[in-house]
Design goal:
- It is an enzyme of class 2 (transferase).
- One of its GO terms (biological process) is fatty acid biosynthetic process.
- Belongs to the fabD family.
- The N and C termini lie close together (6 Å).
- The chain is α/β, with parallel strands linked by helices.
- It has two domains: 234 residues, Malonyl-Coenzyme A Acyl Carrier Protein, domain 2, CATH 3.40.366; 63 residues, Alpha-Beta Plaits.
- The protein is globular.
- The chain is built from twelve helices and nine strands.
C-alpha cells in the first residue's frame, strides 16, 4: 500500500476569507464545525475568517482557534468522503493540536480550550516587551546558532528549523533585529519579518508553559489512533504524561520540522498532504524533489489531492 502523511500548519497560515470555497457546499460540515467551535469559545470564528476582527486584540486572541478549527473541518470533510487514513500525522507548532484531535487523542472542545488559553497567555508576554520573529533564508543553521549566541545578552533563539534553507528566529525585538542584520552580513539571501506578534518558541514563553501545564492536568489525552510525530523530540509518544510534557516544552523549544519530514521519509513515505487553509507547509517542500506534496487550501485542491492519493493507493 502506498502510504502518506498528513501535516497540519500552525500560526501564519491564516488569510482573509479562507476556506470560502468550502462554505458554498450544501449541508455544510464546515459551518457545523465552525458553529460548534464558536459556541465552545464564545466567539464567532466564522465572522472572523470571513470579515476579520473589529478589534486587533480579538484577531490575535482568536486566530489560533480559527486555524485549529479550519484544519479540523477539512479533516472531517476528508473523513466524510471516506478518505484514506494516513500512516503518520504531524503538526507545525499550533498544528500539533490539530494532529492530536484528528488522531482521536484530544477532544476538539478540549483542544479549543487549550488553544484559547495559549493565545491569551502568549499575548500577555508582549505587554511592554517588544518582540520580533524573522525568517532567515539561505544560511546554515550552525552559523545562525553562533550569531544568536553572540547576542545572548537578550533573548534570541532559533524558533523553528523549517527546512535546510529556512530557519525562524524569535525573541526580544532588538536582539532579533541585530541577529537578522548579522545573518545578512554572513550570507543570508533574505531576512523576512513574519506577521507573528509574540516571541514564539523562545525562553520568553516559559511563563506561558507553566500556566499551560496547570490547564493540561485537567485535560484527558488518549493514545493517538494514528501516530503523531511531536515537535520537540521528533518521536511518536503514546502515554498521556509524555504527550502533555511535550506540549508544554513545545512552547519554548525549537520546532524541529525538517527532522520530522526526514523521519517520515525514512519510513519510505514520500506523499504528504497539508490539511489547512493555506499552502505554508507545501511551499516549504518546493525544493524537496523526493516528496509529492498536496494541499487542501481550497475545494479544488482538496478534490485534486483526494483523487491523486486514492489513485496512488489503487495502483499499488
Amino acid at each position: 500500500m502506498n502510504s502518506f502523511a498528513m501535516l497540519f500548519p500552525g500560526q501564519g497560515s491564516q488569510h482573509t476569507n479562507m476556506l470560502c470555497s468550502f462554505f458554498q457546499k450544501k449541508n455544510n460540515i464546515f459551518k457545523k464545525i465552525f458553529d460548534e467551535a464558536s459556541e465552545c469559545i464564545n466567539y464567532n470564528l466564522l465572522k472572523l475568517i470571513k470579515n476579520g476582527a473589529k478589534k486587533k486584540d480579538d484577531y490575535y486572541k482568536y486566530i489560533q482557534s480559527a486555524i485549529l478549527t479550519s484544519s479540523i473541518a477539512i479533516y472531517q470533510f476528508w473523513k466524510e468522503k471516506n478518505g484514506r487514513c494516513p500512516a503518520f500525522m504531524s503538526g507545525h507548532s499550533l498544528g500539533e493540536y490539530s494532529a492530536l484531535v484528528c488522531a482521536d487523542a484530544i477532544k476538539f472542545s478540549d483542544a479549543l480550550k487549550i488553544v484559547k488559553l495559549r493565545s491569551k497567555l502568549m499575548q500577555r508576554t508582549i505587554i511592554n516587551k517588544p518582540s520580533l520573529v524573522q525568517a532567515i533564508i539561505g544560511l546554515d543553521k550552525i552559523i545562525i546558532e553562533n550569531i544568536c549566541l553572540q547576542h545572548s545578552e537578550k533573548v534570541v533563539s532559533i524558533a523553528s528549523i523549517n527546512s535546510k534553507n529556512q530557519i525562524i528566529v524569535s525573541g526580544d525585538k532588538s536582539a532579533v533585529h541585530e541577529v537578522g542584520v548579522s545573518c545578512k552580513k554572513n550570507g543570508a539571501k533574505y531576512v523576512i519579518k513574519l506577521n507573528i506578534n509574540t516571541p514564539i518558541h523562545s525562553s520568553l514563553m516559559k511563563p506561558v508553559a507553566e500556566k499551560m501545564q496547570y490547564l493540561l492536568q485537567s485535560i484527558k489525552i488518549k493514545t493517538p489512533k494514528i501516530p503523531v510525530i511531536n515537535n520537540v523530540d521528533v518521536i511518536c509518544e503514546k502515554s498521556e504524561k509524555k504527550i502533555k510534557k511535550a506540549l508544554v516544552r513545545q512552547l519554548y523549544s525549537t520546532v524541529r520540522w525538517k527532522e520530522i519530514i526526514d523521519l517520515i521519509k525514512s519510513k519510505k513515505i514520500f506523499t504528504m498532504l497539508e490539511i489547512g487553509p493555506n499552502k505554508i507547509l507545501t511551499n516549504l517542500m518546493k525544493k524537496n524533489h523526493s516528496i509529492t506534496m498536496f494541499n487542501t487550501n481550497n475545494l479544488k485542491n482538496f478534490l485534486i489531492a483526494f483523487k491523486k492519493i486514492h489513485k496512488k493507493n489503487n495502483e499499488n
